[in-house]
Amino acid sequence: MFDVTDKEKQVFTGFVNQLVKWSKGGETPTNGNQDTAYYLNLQKERLQKKGLRLQYDLRERENFEVHGTTKRSNKYTCTMAWQSFFKKTSIFQGNKRIYQHKDNELVYGIVTSMNQSEMTGEETYVCPNCGGVSTINQLFKGCPYCETRFTMEDLYPKVTNHFFLRDYGQNEKEMKAMTIKYVLIGMVICCIIMLFLGLMDTMKGREFNLSSRIFKGCLIGGFYGLLAVPLSLFFGILKDAIKTLPILSRTTGTKKKITEILSAYDNTFSYDHFVSRVLALLKMIVYSYDRTDMPAYDKPEKGPDYSDIVESVYRGAMALKNHTVENGYCYLELEVIMVDLCLKGGRIKRVEESFFMVICKNIEKPENFGFSIKKVQCKGCGASFDATRIKHCPHCRSEYELKEDDWVVLSIWRQ
Ligand SMILES: [Zn+2]
Ligand SMILES: [Zn+2]
User: Fold this and answer.
1) Ligand 2 centre and the CA of 374: distance in Å?
2) Nearest ligand to the C-alpha of residue 129?
3) Which of 291, 318, 324, 379 is 20 to 30 A distant from 102 in Cα terms?
4) Residues 116, 76: Cα–Cα separation, whole Å
5) For residue range 196-235, what is the model confidence (pLDDT) as tens digits?
6) Which ligand has the minimum distance to the alpha carbon of residue 132?
7) What is the pTM of this model?
8) 163-201, pLDDT tens digit by residue?
9) 360 and 296 in contact (C-beta within 8 Å)?
10) Residues less than 5 Å from ion ligand 1, measured at CB
11) Distance (Å, rounded) from C-alpha 302 to C-alpha 288?
């Protein structure tokens, strides 16, 4: 374990701000990696097609700063950073708000850095195809001289995965506010009951002492209000624990198992980096409609219909169901638990659901160390295209097989 650096904190905080701005119509977060930018764009398209607008509002909570833990593999350094916010998620249809969820939530971000790499993107690079000189950032969009496309690693550090979880922690100020609220509610309710009982008594001809009734009401109500504070906190946590326990029992040990299987083939394996890729694959598939030309989906068909999902958030856990290694390819069957916002009959429903997916990768090819840039050339006609986003060569329709270089999804289903 290492300490979280200021740079990593900055990348995380910057990403969170950019994400909020993005939700309010701003540009796609530049502190996120290429995959994150890609699925956020798909999500925005999905929302626009449905005439919806998703909006995050975050308010910092006092005494809740950025925390984090850092893990280092031979190639990547992954820091899980988190901060507690009061988070409001709203969905608008035109000007009408059709959904709102308010909570204290922990916002998590995985900040990935590559060891021994300090590139900014403004460095110049000689195009491996034509020899023309341009910056790395320009090459991301294709060589400006010969238009050759490349697959490139992200210029780290970037946020490669993010998610939100409910936070039960309370600071002193919030605790006080909550106590005052509960005590006042208790007093009001008890006073109303006392006055009502008093009125019943006067009907029977007994004397009605207003000040004594109110005094008793406040005393008893205040007492029960005070008692309700720890009880409500306790039952809130208990409710969440009951929901979380079955998830924990399914997912415990997954990290260890996957690390064991994959680090045998790749001594640079990083679990956090792997999870980021799996989540990116899942979100690309969830937010897209036609996947016939998506390199991450290794099937010649459109795939299942998930078009009701407008927001999909990782629940922080996944489970390994099965695994095999055959002819140099590794196959993993995973269960990934998500909290989704689904549009059904004009209403938004919040549901926890599992996605089961079989993913595959060639594990015999050695991993590249450091920054890698590879020319994408069609095996059929020699043309160059963006093989990270389109599977078939636009000139001759030959297929580019991403599973030779990265994880792809073979099948996916939802439960
Ligand atoms: Zn070139
Ligand atoms: Zn071609």
Assistant:
1) 17
2) 1
3) 318
4) 9
5) 888 888 888 777 788 888 898 999 999 999 999 889 888 8
6) 1
7) 0.85
8) 999 888 877 888 899 899 999 999 999 999 988 888 888
9) no
10) 127, 129-130, 132, 143, 145-146, 148
11) 10
